[in-house]
Amino acid sequence: MKLKTILVLVSLTILCACSLAQETADDWYEKGQDLYQRQSPKEAVQAYDKAIELNQSFAEAWRAKGQAQILLALEFAGDIRTRTFDDAVHSYEKAIEIQPRNATLWNEKGNALSAAAFYSSNASDLHNQSLQAYDKALELDPENAEAWRGKGVVFTEQKKYDLAIDAFNKSLVADPKYGWALGSKGSALMQMGRLEEAVEYYDAAMKIHPDDQGAQMMKAEALAKLGRGNESDQTYIDALQRADKAILAADTKENLSMAWHEKAIIFIDQGKYAEAIVAYDNVTASNPKERSAWLMMAFASDQTARYDKALVAYEGALALNENDSTALLGKGDSLYKLGRYSESKDAFDFALKADSKMYSAYKGKGDALKALNKSTEAVEAYGTALGQIEENIKSNPENARPWQAKGSVLLAMNRTDKALEAFDKAIELDPEHFPGLEQKGDLLMALGRYEDAFLAYEMATVTDPSFPRLWYKKGQALKAQNRQSEADSAFRKAREMGYNV
Question: Most CB within 10 Å of its CB: which of 70, 134, 350, 428?
Fold first, then answer.
């Protein structure tokens, strides 16, 4: 009996050893690839780490880890997102140490820096670093279409449109059928006001990638700005029909979720938020673990003043990760709008525990404390928010968003003159970013300057007509001036877009 037991134990030991031996660096890399494809970036990073632990010189594993970390960064906000982007850049640098003459690695490092810049208060420095990485890729491979396109995207973000067009042209010389370069050139042309040309490039992009939803939506927007409303509407109809076909053809829950998500985005782009909410309900029913769907459902619900629904959606995201700072911030905002100030303050505290650099959470906490008549604590929270915002402005004074946030905090502190200056600065830096115009309108309404408020809301609806609350606020400004028929028209537009008037 003892001999049998010993033999069994020996056999198990051999089996375990064989099993462990089978887990090679390549095995862990393949596991990471599978997890990445299934939109599980956190687990993918862990698998790539196992591969790298077994083979420190595994450049492809470092590269894949960087790709997964970029995807993971998009699940966070504030300081955590910044650190995760930094980790992604570090992973690419480790891959480059192993293969310094690999142009693809330099190009993808540039992409990581460019993506980080979009969310950073230090965008200028990150843009310059990304251009340096693209230049290194082009030094190694002068015909690298992806690197030329990357440079074009950065130049577009910097509003250096002539340089952007030149970079896109060089990308297309290297690869005339590079659809993403065609679409990106279309976006640059659109920002330059060259709308007819933009439409042509979006069409060219869609000939190569018929499922390029981004190009299709941008084409619809350009057509609308050209006054070609029927063509714009037809573009949206075509997109919705394609999404419906994908829904009917979906053979897995993942594919069904993706198809509904595509349809929801089309509704969002049209400003049809009520329909978008229904679509996101279908996304989460198919795949309740899709964080972005919960957050977009909350966004659509907030735009239509359905704060109870927004709260449910934020709770859906928090069920996936109770420390999700973005969802906690949104939860606090929804609770505040529902008049549940104590719970709102608690949610903002949890958001700050997850990310202490989230100045918008300090501002929200200040609002909740103010509503609870805790003035001293509110002033302290606003002060902390302002301090963090000023740090952001100092590091990147050309970024409109912190200026708009500064105005919002100053307005909450009743420092209206300074708030107005901050909003005007935000508008000067980015006339196409409607929140500065909206909040300027809110301030002017509070001051009883209804005509000026109307003009701000009017500019906001011209800048982005797809937000129903802008039409509602425009209606309020008109009503305050006794322009009732015009106000009714604006309210009707808000209702048509799903606003809970």
Answer: 134
Structure tokens at 136: 């290194």
Model-level pTM?
A: 0.85
Q: Which residues contact 334 (CB under 8 A, 6 or more apart)?
A: 298, 302, 307, 308, 310, 311, 314
Residue 179 phi, psi dihedral angles, 5° rounding: -60, -40
Alpha-carbon span 8 to 435, nearest angstrom: 70
Diameter of the chain measured on Cα atoms: 98
Enumerate residues 6+ apart whose C-beta is below 8 A from 317. Answer: 291, 294, 295, 298, 324, 326, 327, 330
CB 271 within 8 A of CB 466: yes
pLDDT tens digits, one per residue of 216-248: 999 999 999 999 999 999 999 999 999 999 999
What tokens appear for 108 in the block?
């993808």
pLDDT tens digit sequence for 381-390: 999 999 999 9
Q: In the structure encoding, which two tokens stand for residue 273, read together?
A: 């938020």
Identify the burial level of 2 via C-beta atoms within 10 angstroms of its C-beta, where 0-12 means exposed, 13-18 middle and 19 or more buried. exposed
Q: Which tokens go with 224?
A: 């609308």
3-class SS at 227?
Answer: coil
DSSP 443-475: HHHHTT-HHHHHHHHHHHHHH-TT-HHHHHHHH
Tally Cβ neighbours within 10 Å of residue 160: 16
Two tokens, residue 434: 């409607």
Alpha-helical (H) ranges within 119-252 are 123-140, 145-157, 161-174, 179-191, 195-208, 213-225, 229-249
Could you tell me if 235 and 223 are in contact, meaning their C-beta atoms sit under 8 angstroms apart? yes
Q: Report which secondary-structure segment, H or E, holds 277.
A: helix 273-286
Contact criterion met (CB below 8 Å) for 198 and 232: no
pLDDT tens profile 82-119: 999 999 999 999 999 999 999 999 999 999 999 999 98
Structure tokens at 45: 């990073």
Judge contact between 438 and 473, C-beta under 8 A. Answer: yes
Q: Which residues contact 70 (CB under 8 A, 6 or more apart)?
A: 85, 88, 111, 112, 115
Give the dihedral sign, CA 247/307/442/497.
positive
Q: What's the mean pLDDT in 155-169?
A: 96
CB 290 within 8 A of CB 279: no
Distance CA 428, CA 431 (A): 6
Sign of the alpha-carbon torsion through 179, 184, 188, 194: positive
Separation CA 453–CA 451 (nearest Å)? 5
Distance CA 3, CA 257 (A): 56
> At 75, which helix (H) or strand (E)?
none
Q: What is the DSSP letter of 120?
A: -
Helix (H, G, I), strand (E, B) or coil at 366: helix
Whether the CA torsion 69, 73, 79, 80 is positive or negative: it is negative
